[in-house]
Amino acid sequence: MTTLLRLVLVALTAALGTLVVPAAPAAAVTARAACATDPATPKRQLRAMWISSVANIDWPSRTGLSVSAQQAEFRAWLDLAVQRRMNAVVVQVRPTADTFWPSSLEPWSQWLTGAQGGNPGYDPLAFMVAEAHSRNLELHAWFNPYRVANHADPNQLVSSHPARRNPSWRFAYDGKLYYNPGLPQVRGFIEDVIMEAVTRYDIDGVHLDDYFYPYPAGGQTIPDSAAYAQYGGGFASVHDWRRENVNLLVRELDQRIHAAKPHVAFGISPFGIWRNSGTDPLGSATSGLQSYDAIYADTRRWVKQGWVDYIAPQLYWHIGYSVADYRVLIAWWADVVRNTGVQLLAGQASYRAGVSSHGADWQDPDELSDHLHLNRQHPEVAGDIFFSAKDVRANRINSFSILAAAHYAKPSLPHPRGTAAAPAAPAITSATRGSTGVSLAWNGGGTAYAVYRVNGTPSAADPCAFADARNLLGTTRSRTFTDTTAAAGTAYTYYVTALARTHQESAPSAGRAVTASGGGFSVTVDNADAAFTAGATWGSSAFSAERHGADYRFADPVAASDPAWFRASIPSAGTYRVEVWYPGNAGYNSATPHIVAASGGNQTVTVDQRTGGGAWRSIGTFSLNAGTYNVVGVSRWTTTAGYVIADAVRITRI
């Protein structure tokens, strides 16, 4: 399916201007219900990718790399996350009961040097945390709890490996080695390993994947009968006992993590189906493998009991798949988490997009993007995680670029966790234009900071300017920021908010304005800016590569004006050149009316939007009055066929 045209309601207004803008009250910032927001630029959304180390899937790309080469590769993954406007990474740090930190309990991972127990020459986890935080990315440390090895020969383990020194702790199944989840000493040991990383490193989250008891293998039985005989008293079946063993690990980890560091999130990414409705009326309308029965993961219970901060089911199926339809499962999981306080993240199959072996539906470049469009129908969906990093980078069939253009055109803040108080509002101490843009500095007490920019110099902060991310430039853990996108001829006002470690946001600072420079006044207003308004009949599209910014607006012709307006602050009365930008297309309108609010009265100029797109096109010079008002409108009132387009305008003093 192809999603080209999505209707959204965007109705934000800008205020009048001077150079100093008081901070908005905290209550006004949190009262977002009165503000129309754009679902394409959400204020809160976790965006992450899995960086897998097992078998060198993502990082390191191979064993035996030098320290500098390993570190350069990891920095490149983080830079990719920043480029794609993500705010977190989920990094596998314990792939096969071996670690990416100097553990006192388990050996160095074989995936670092090629030899289990081999010292890589640095502390990878400390390095990863520092590098992620320098980019204000959360780092969630990903642990595989029970997997010991992807082979069944314990003699291949390093001699000091706990699974080799304690043969009773392990079993072989389907050609692999596992810790036995039914042994209390094993459960305590796994928790101790994870807690070692929690207490020693400044990680933001503990993340478990979908490997609990082994996935079923035909004709094989899990060899845990002795453990069941010893510890399974009181359970009706071995299946109930196995589920409780996993439940205990989840519940105890939740307790231990939050007792040690309340700000650390605990999340699990399970197989996407709990149970099918044909088996259990509480299950989903699917017919696939059931994690409750097959791998003893009672994922629904973990959510309902609040034993996790987030659940990230691996919903690796396309929309319309009869066995496990993404549309069905995202709705089911949204219902499960509703009113629980547990955040729902969707695990997305980037690895399937554009790969012929995954079927025709995954050859549609819009498939992944359409998943996120479906997510918008469920406010319980707090974000997405993509498997895996190498597939995000590969961007086969342009699928991730399409997704990013439709959903990640602006940065976003992770959802707040817990009940911590928001920090006090920071204070901007300087805002200076330079050759690289506008440099800001401020004082404040947050863990991180969010930087916002609005066009012009309004006299008061509009709370709706902070209701979504359309004005959000980025976040940082520093107290300085350079806006490299600032146009020399445009006046701006900047605001900074402080963020707690768990992402509660302060009220905005007082605004700090910078005036236009470069020898003359010029202002550009894009349809994504707060200074643009349009009615609900105007759709939004990112279809054309000739667009200005992330998208543009379109509407059918009608015998009524219903204009989309571009608002601007005109500094003084005078003569101004007005230019428009639109994507050209043979199916667009040949006589789109453009209304200019000139000083002598409105003037209308028609533009043939079938051709000449993807560039600034002058529609004339006009006498304009000083003030902040709707300067240029795009009207729907035309008798010619084809969509009328509103994308961007530029107004320049001459």
Q: What's the total number of strands?
A: 32
Low-confidence stretches: 1-32
The helix-and-strand class reads alpha+beta
First-residue to last-residue Cα separation: 48 Å
Read across the widest sheet, the strand sequence of neighbours is 3-4-5-9-10-11-12-13
* Individual helix count: 14
Beta-strand fraction estimate: 25-35%
Quaternary structure state of the chains depicted: single chain
Helix fraction, binned, reads 10-25%
Sketch the major β-sheet. 8 strands, parallel, barrel
Mean pLDDT: 92
Describe the overall structure.
With 654 residues, this protein is of the alpha+beta class. The protein is 20% helix and 26% strand. Strand 27 and strand 28 (601-607) form a beta hairpin. The longest helix is centred in the middle third of the chain and has 23 residues, at 238-260. The two termini are 48 Å apart. Mean pLDDT is 92; it is low at 1-32.
Helices, strands, pairings?
Layout: E1 5-7, E2 20-21, H1 26-30, E3 46-51, H2 67-83, E4 88-94, H3 110-113, H4 124-134, E5 138-143, E6 147-149, H5 162-165, E7 170-173, E8 176-179, H6 184-200, E9 205-208, H7 225-231, H8 238-260, E10 265-268, H9 291-294, H10 299-304, E11 310-311, H11 326-337, E12 343-348, H12 367-375, E13 381-386, H13 389-394, H14 399-407, E14 427-434, E15 437-443, E16 448-455, E17 472-476, E18 480-483, E19 492-499, E20 511-514, E21 522-526, E22 532-533, E23 539-541, E24 552-555, E25 564-570, E26 574-581, E27 592-598, E28 601-607, E29 617-624, E30 627-634, E31 644-646, E32 648-653
Parallel strand pairs: 3-4, 3-13, 4-5, 5-9, 9-10, 10-11, 11-12, 12-13
Antiparallel strand pairs: 1-23, 2-20, 6-8, 7-8, 14-15, 15-18, 16-17, 16-19, 19-20, 21-32, 22-25, 23-24, 24-31, 25-30, 26-29, 26-32, 27-28, 27-30
Helix pairs in contact: 2-4, 6-8, 12-14
Domain Glycosyl hydrolase-like: 45-362
Signal peptide: 1-23
Keywords: Signal
